[in-house]
Amino acid sequence: xxxxxxxxxxxxxxxxxxxxxxxxxxxxxxxxxxxxxxxxxxxxxxxxxxxxxxxxxxxxxxxxxxxxxxxxxxxxxxxxxxxxxxxxxxxxxxxxxxxxxxxxxxxxxxxxxxxxxxxxxxxxxxxxxxxxxxxxxxxxxxxxxxxxxxxxxxxxxxxxxxxxxxxxxxxxxxxxxxxxxxxxxxxxxxxxxxxxxxxxxxxxxxxxxxxxxxxxxxxxxxxxxxxxxxxxxxxxxxxxxxxxxxxxxxxxxxxxxxxxxxxxxxxxxxxxxxxxxxxxxxxxxxxxxxxxxxxxxxxxxxxxxxxxxxxxxxxxxxxxx
Length: 321
Ligand SMILES: NC(=O)c1ccc[n+]([C@@H]2O[C@H](COP(=O)([O-])OP(=O)(O)OC[C@H]3O[C@@H](n4cnc5c(N)ncnc54)[C@H](O)[C@@H]3O)[C@@H](O)[C@H]2O)c1
What we know:
Layout: E1 2-6, H1 10-22, E2 27-32, H2 36-41, E3 49-50, E4 62-65, H3 72-81, E5 85-89, H4 107-111, E6 113-116, H5 123-133, E7 142-148, H6 157-167, H7 172-188, E8 194-201, E9 212-218, E10 224-230, E11 240-244, E12 248-253, E13 259-263, E14 266-270, H8 276-293, H9 303-320
Parallel strand pairs: 1-2, 1-4, 2-3, 4-5, 5-6, 7-10
Antiparallel strand pairs: 7-11, 8-9, 9-10, 11-12, 12-13, 13-14
Helix pairs in contact: 1-8, 5-7, 7-9
Bound molecules: nicotinamide-adenine-dinucleotide.
């Protein structure tokens, strides 16, 4: 599969690029970014670089878009309409309204789009889904998702600038919520039935938006979720997901995805080989190849999954403001 990577920013260079190079079925043919500085950072990979892809499109079967969400919809539509397979980063847009751009795609173009809800691919999420579905933890469970990432690091102005710019396009729930609401609907058997409560807090007046935000949601089967997201404070609470039911407690470490299960029988730890990022990005690329060669009939996670996660995130952001 001849693949171009567009977007040579943080996640493009640190995760997508190495994962594409690790997959034997992928021939990485183009690296694209309008920024000469970002292209210069990719110069050592001996892959041709360029400011845009349009002239080289005949040479690629698929495009990986590691682009900001305010750029992604236009590129997805352009490349999917041109008959290319597209793996696009989450969130799929900055708002449900902006995601209306995807209405231009027909069913065949839509099925060729896979969304970078990368951590859905982790076997730890699969294990957690099994414990919830088979009653190991109880019947109705309470999920507490504490998603605290991106601390304020005064010695890293580039990081502060990037995260502050991202915050200007929406509170952390819009960006991180894409992953978390996708996990929750995957784990709890469907989209939330209701948003019961939401809140937000801005810890510094010069920030462009609230940097702490949270909500309470009800899911099918009587499951409940309490979610919290936070960025840009000097210290952050632990990042983890806990699932509590009548029969047990499962804890997913937010960074390693190591699992701990505690029940009346005792406590056990479940760890999967390799680091979470490599594991998930490798599985994600392989699913993209499977989509191209027909092993998979539609992108997974799909564009609809990406839009559903965005809709929940936007609902929370709106209620919390
Ligand atoms: N799946 C994950 O686990 C994960 C992790 C981090 C970030 N992300 C998502 O990935 C996206 C990128 O995040 P980032 O932190 O790398 O941002 P970033 O700002 O570091 O990088 C984005 C890059 O896209 C480039 N770009 C802008 N317009 C472009 C265009 N038309 N064509 C090609 N390149 C273009 C920019 O110049 C920049 O280099 C965001 O949507 C973010 O939410 C996903």
